[in-house]
Amino acid sequence: MKSNTITWFFCILFFAIGVLNAFIIHIVPGALYILLSLLYLPKANLLLKMKFGFSLPMAAKIGLGLVALWGTLAVGDLAERFGL
């Protein structure tokens, strides 16, 4: 249950960041964040396992999410726009 909550949190967070980037900054980083948010959907792990034969462990998803979040809020264009 805890891992499902974490994945939904990152999914919604990166989708929102993607929409903000698409409208305020540029469509390309927005699209990349929206694609990143799809990685955190609960069925994405199952789809990766079926199509490609591997799945991402929860620790890798959390690590990737924290690095992407740090890059967005610390040094990204969105952080500069809002003065974070």
- Beta-strand percentage range: under 5%
Shape: elongated
Share in helix: over 70%
DSSP summary: helix tally: 5
Number of strands: 0
User: Stretches where pLDDT falls below 50 for ≥5 residues?
Assistant: none
Q: Tell me, rounded to a whole number, the average pLDDT.
A: 84
The end-to-end span amounts to: 32 Å
For the biggest sheet, the summary is:
none
Report Rg: 13 Å
Number of domains: 1
Structural class: mainly alpha
Sketch the topology as an H/E string, one letter per element: HHHHH
What does this structure look like?
By secondary structure, this protein is an all-alpha fold. The protein has one domain. It contains five helices and no strands. It has helices at residues 2-25, 27-39, 42-52, 58-74, 77-82.
What does the secondary structure layout of this molecule look like, with pairings?
Elements lengths: L1 H24 L1 H13 L2 H11 L5 H17 L2 H6 L2
Short description:
It is built from five helices and no strands.
Key features of this structure:
single chain, 84 residues, mainly alpha, 5 helices, 85% helix, elongated
